[in-house]
Amino acid sequence: AYHNLGLAPRAQPLLQAAIDGYLARDVGQPLDAARVLGELAVMHSNSDEDAAAVAAARRSLALRESSGGMPLHVAESLNSLGLALSTGEPGEAHAHLMRALALRREHAGEPSVEVASTLHNLGRLERHRGDYRAAERYYRHALAQKRALGATRDGSYAISLAGLAMSLRELGRLYEAVRIQLEQLEHARRLYPDGTHLADAHNEIANT
After folding, report:
1. Does residue 111 have a cis bond before it (omega within 30 degrees)?
2. 91: buried, middle or exposed (CB in 10 Å: 19+, 13-18, 0-12)?
């Protein structure tokens, strides 16, 4: 509940207690611990706590691989680890995300939420690395998957739109960027008419 309310400082010790409980000798549920570690890694990433996010994601992946975790669960940990490493170790991040993408394509199929998530993260990684053409390609693939799933009213759709627009802007394709940003603005109006998302959308258009 604290996590969903945006109260990460309160949620983190509770998640850590759950992890310790699952790993206790008399409980022995490493795959459940790995699942919670993945949630903790995402929480750290969202709070810009990169080192803690990487540590939690690595531990989640190690537990799942050593305990016979299902391929999609291993892919989830790889995806989290790639995201956590994207600013500090982009080469390693890319390798983990590509492995996650292969597993998700094989076991979740396309279109799927899982594949769309990893494609978006690859776009984010390439944008941070300055390869805006590759970023554009990944963002467009992610958006295509989300449209095929009917997920255009989901918040993650707007985030992929924003990443695509920023990539196009860096490539000097300003008219295309504004067109995407106008779509993002309409999305914000539908979902967040009085929130910061609407102000952010207006700001991005002004900056372009």
Report:
1. yes
2. exposed
Query: 């449209």: which residue's tokens?
Result: 147
Distance CA 161, CA 97 (A): 20
Between vectors from CA 48 to CA 43 and to CA 53, what angle results, nearest 5°?
50
The pTM score is: 0.89
* Over residues 77-97, mean pLDDT: 95
Report how far apart, in Å, the C-alpha atoms of 35 and of each of 7, 27, 101, 120, 192 are: 20, 15, 19, 21, 31
Contacts of 114 (CB under 8 A, 6+ apart): 72, 75, 76, 79, 104, 108
Task: Determine contact, residues 163/186, Cβ cutoff 8 Å.
Answer: no
Q: What is the CA radius of gyration of the chain?
A: 18
Which residue intervals of the chain are DSSP H helices? 8-23, 30-46, 50-66, 71-85, 90-107, 113-129, 132-148, 155-170, 174-191, 196-207
Longest dimension (CA), the chain: 61
At 125, the pLDDT band (50, 70, 90 cuts) reads very high
- In this predicted structure, what is the pLDDT of residue 195? 67
Q: What is the Cα–Cα distance from 70 to 73, expressed in whole angstroms?
A: 5
| Residue 101 near residue 138, CB atoms below 8 Å | no
**How many whole angstroms separate alpha carbon 45 and alpha carbon 121?**
12
Q: For residue 66, give every residue at least 6 positions away whose Cβ sits within 8 Å of its Cβ, in sequence order, or none.
A: 30
